[in-house]
Amino acid sequence: MHPADDVIRSRANAALKRGALGARGKEDGVVLLEGERLVRDALRAGLRPDLVLVRDDRADLAADLGLAGARLVAAPLFERRGTLATPPGVLGLFDRPEPRDLDDLAARLAAEGPALLLGIAGVAEPGNLGALARSAEAAGADGVVVVEGGARPFTPKALRGSMGSLLRLPVFEVDDVAAVDAAATLHGVRRTAAATRGGTPLDEHDFGERAIVWVTGETGDAPPDLAGCDPVAIPMAGDVESLNVTVAGALLLFAAARQQRRT
């Protein structure tokens, strides 16, 4: 138990100010994690805690998490921390997961054996990006490729949406789709892209045992560089024209994973 005089009670406190900078994305090399679940996920993933703030009435949580260096914050001050309207009892700045780029992706694609990757291009909503990563982990994917120009993977909202998946999966951040497409072609990885219309029906498509499944922006507009991918459409009944990008991505990922298990 932390002694009472260790509780932060001043807005001028340096740790409190640093936490505020992290919440606004102004601290390089760290990610903001809000809530017990994400903090536990980060610790299990081996990420190093840089700063952890705990509401003073949850001092037991700091002990339970094994965070001897956590700082307790008086409840009235803690309510103004983080990005949520109702902050949880703990938030932390953790070292950002190891960055992976196109060279790392090419090395993964060059490895022998089955492979399943999720490609995300032009998805604007961070929560959707996070949910897609969660589906990728659940389907058994080997990693997530995120192309610049859309939501970023290590923002608070994306991390919350992923429920920790973005902390556990390899995340490859790349400049453009064309470079990924070239690497996939070189190493015999089949490229599939979700299509709102046209394309092979999902239940007839052969994803292959080495596959990258692309999903694109919420409007369904695909980058021109995905023109070389095999378009796959999800058959739908009634007057429904399209599915939410996270639902469509999950259906394609699980279909690809199911095929790979069978072969």
What does this structure look like?
With 263 residues, the chain is α/β, with parallel strands linked by helices. The protein folds into 2 domains: 92 residues, 60s Ribosomal Protein L30, Chain: A (2-Layer Sandwich), CATH 3.30.1330; 161 residues, Alpha/beta knot, CATH 3.40.1280.10. 35% of the residues lie in helices and 21% in strands. Helix 5 packs parallel to helix 9 and helix 6 runs parallel beside helix 7. The chain is elongated. The model has no long low-confidence stretch (mean pLDDT 89).
Question: Class by helix and strand content?
Answer: alpha/beta
Which CATH first-tier class of the largest domain would you pick? Alpha Beta
Coarse morphology = elongated
- For this structure, the CATH topology of the largest domain is Alpha/beta knot
Largest beta sheet: strand ordering: 7-6-5-10-8-11-9
Number of domains: 2
Summarize it:
The protein is an alpha/beta fold. It has helices at 14-23, 36-44, 59-65, 75-78, 102-110, 126-139, 156-162, 165-168, 177-186, 245-262; strands spanning 30-34, 49-55, 71-73, 90-95, 115-121, 143-147, 171-174, 190-195, 200-201, 210-216, 230-233.
Produce the secondary structure layout.
Blueprint: H1 14-23, E1 30-34, H2 36-44, E2 49-55, H3 59-65, E3 71-73, H4 75-78, E4 90-95, H5 102-110, E5 115-121, H6 126-139, E6 143-147, H7 156-162, H8 165-168, E7 171-174, H9 177-186, E8 190-195, E9 200-201, E10 210-216, E11 230-233, H10 245-262
Parallel strand pairs: 2-3, 5-6, 5-10, 6-7, 8-10, 8-11, 9-11
Antiparallel strand pairs: 1-4, 2-4
